[in-house]
């Protein structure tokens, strides 16, 4: 299926009387892909805000670590708290576990769909695929909220809606990465992708604020409004998004510098050629040097990040901060500071990795530093609101930094591996494998949290710290390769020989 020029661009050029410039298309692509994936995350975030409304139980005596320091202060407050009745079946004794299963349903289907999305993107128009994914996501997100209007209390209805939403969302990431890869070269990849990858945190923040604001009208609106918004953005993508320069006949501006042109000749992700390329098999793609370590590392990174994504507002509303419990809406708003820190962390990690030319070393450093940050947030985050804000920001920065780096710049680096031989369809498969494996971790984390948190939040944070440790250790081999390359570069007069990415050298036979 050939890609065609979007109808909106055709109309714009007709009214304007001249073709749109190359730079203008680059800006348009950045804005549209940013808004697209931000809207995906906005719909994904809503369940975390609504959790405490569906299951309003306060797990007193299990929320602080060590608990004996706080139990005396909390005694006598349980009877004074006024709780909403919740929403069946999530307000039962096993309600927290059911919410964890809802998260698993969404993320499990999302992860499975991700493995097929890369190949699908090579065979259809990415603009159409992205549009269908966004409109479908909006439809089933709103349908989940419709359970309130239609007074539905069947667990399998909500389970099914989340599974369908996860299926449609799986087409989003491969599509936006491929489109951006068609338009932008390698220069300052880490910084550019770090800034662009802020769409994740921006989507989480906007989703939290919208869902929290809608709670006073009924939790159904916390799903309906983001669902409508992503559908509208999807229609905008259909009308305006140019998939690549070649398919719409745009030529590079003549005033571009030679270095910029050379850089554009080396795309961020190899463009899909019009020639016949043999798609790389699933097992063969796993054997590409560097794919397995990064995929497994992302498994644990996303386990940590998505546990915060789905459970942080619930944790905040169920934890006394400065001796007081926050409302569900206030907890949702406060949780956005984790994502604000994530924006800073993603940009900082990208910039540092560009400066050092060491992706793995940067990611591993952030991951190991996240371990004490998680520990301190658990112990001291409940002292006061100020402490909670500061520690949450730092934790978000350190948790989301390596996650953003691996899913963008590092994944792109693997696409330059010599074993790919410029095969764009191999690249799509590699990208899907890495993020698909990470998404399995994203499903496991929230599910385990649903069960573990009913006993002890301290155990949840122990799980998160252990996951961060394993994620950092999985990068050891690549870190050693990067350090060895740096040391060799200092000993070798020809520094240009060491300018290649250590990612490629990590798994050379």
UniProtKB/TrEMBL annotation:
Family the UniProt entry places it in: Belongs to the major facilitator superfamily. Organophosphate:Pi antiporter (OPA) (TC 2.A.1.4) family.
Transmembrane residue ranges: 20-40, 97-116, 128-150, 156-184, 196-215, 221-241, 291-311, 331-349, 361-380, 386-406, 427-452, 458-480
Membrane topology: Multi-pass membrane protein
Pfam families for this protein: MFS_1
SUPFAM superfamilies on file: MFS general substrate transporter
GO CC annotations, alphabetized: membrane
Keywords on record: Membrane, Sugar transport, Transmembrane, Transmembrane helix, Transport
Compartment(s): Membrane
Organism: Urochloa decumbens
This protein's name: Major facilitator superfamily (MFS) profile domain-containing protein
Family matches, as InterPro entries: MFS, MFS_dom, MFS_trans_sf, Sugar_P_transporter
Top-level taxon of the source organism: Eukaryota
Domain Major facilitator superfamily (MFS) profile: 31-484
Keyword Transmembrane listed: yes
PANTHER family named in the record: GLYCEROL-3-PHOSPHATE TRANSPORTER 1-RELATED (PTHR43184:SF15), MAJOR FACILITATOR SUPERFAMILY TRANSPORTER 16, ISOFORM B (PTHR43184)
GO BP term, pick one: phosphate ion homeostasis
């Amino acid at each position: 299926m050939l890609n065609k020029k979007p109808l909106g661009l055709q109309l714009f050029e007709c009214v304007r009387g001249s073709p749109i410039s190359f730079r203008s298309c680059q800006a348009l692509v950045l804005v549209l892909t940013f808004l697209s994936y931000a809207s995906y995350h906005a719909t994904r975030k809503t369940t975390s805000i609504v959790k405490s409304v569906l299951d309003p139980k306060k797990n007193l005596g299990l929320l602080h670590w060590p608990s004996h320091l706080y139990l005396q202060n909390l005694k006598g407050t349980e009877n004074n708290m006024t709780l909403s009745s919740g929403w069946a079946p999530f307000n039962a004794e096993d309600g927290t576990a059911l919410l964890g299963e809802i998260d698993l349903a969404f993320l499990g289907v999302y992860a499975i769909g991700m493995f097929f999305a890369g190949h699908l993107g090579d065979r259809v128009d990415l603009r159409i695929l992205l549009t269908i994914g966004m409109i479908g996501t909006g439809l089933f997100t709103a349908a989940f909220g419709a359970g309130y209007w239609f007074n539905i209390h069947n667990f399998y209805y909500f389970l099914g809606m989340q599974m369908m939403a996860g299926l449609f969302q799986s087409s989003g990431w491969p599509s936006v990465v491929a489109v951006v890869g068609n338009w932008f070269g390698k220069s300052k990849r880490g910084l550019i992708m770090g800034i662009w990858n802020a769409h994740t945190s921006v989507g989480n923040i906007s989703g939290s604020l919208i869902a929290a604001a809608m709670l006073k009208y009924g939790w159904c609106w916390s799903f309906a409004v983001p669902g409508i918004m992503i559908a509208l953005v999807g229609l905008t993508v259909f009308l305006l998004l140019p998939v690549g320069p070649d398919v719409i006949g745009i030529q590079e501006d003549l005033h571009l510098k030679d270095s910029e042109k050379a850089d554009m000749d080396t795309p961020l992700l190899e463009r899909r050629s019009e020639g016949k390329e043999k798609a790389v098999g699933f097992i063969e793609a796993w054997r590409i040097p560097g794919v397995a370590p990064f995929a497994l590392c992302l498994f644990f990174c996303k386990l940590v990040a998505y546990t915060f994504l789905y459970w942080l507002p619930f944790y905040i509303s169920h934890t006394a901060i400065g001796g007081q419990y926050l409302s569900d809406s206030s907890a949702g708003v406060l949780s956005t500071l984790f994502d604000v820190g994530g924006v800073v962390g993603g940009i900082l990690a990208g910039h540092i990795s560009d400066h050092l030319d060491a992706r793995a070393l940067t990611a591993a450093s952030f991951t190991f530093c996240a371990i004490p940050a998680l520990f301190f947030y658990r112990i001291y985050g409940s002292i006061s609101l100020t402490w909670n804000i500061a520690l949450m920001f730092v934790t978000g920065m350190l948790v989301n930094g390596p996650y953003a780096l691996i899913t963008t710049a590092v994944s792109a680096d693997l696409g330059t591996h010599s074993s790919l031989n410029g095969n764009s369809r191999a690249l799509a498969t590699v990208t899907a494998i890495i993020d698909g494996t990470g998404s399995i971790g994203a499903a496991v984390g929230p599910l385990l949290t649903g069960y573990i948190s009913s006993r002890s939040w301290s155990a949840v944070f122990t799980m998160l710290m252990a996951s961060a440790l394993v994620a950092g250790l999985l990068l050891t081999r690549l870190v050693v390769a990067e350090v060895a390359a740096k040391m060799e570069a200092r000993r070798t007069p020809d520094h240009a020989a060491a300018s290649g990415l250590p990612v490629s050298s990590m798994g050379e036979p």
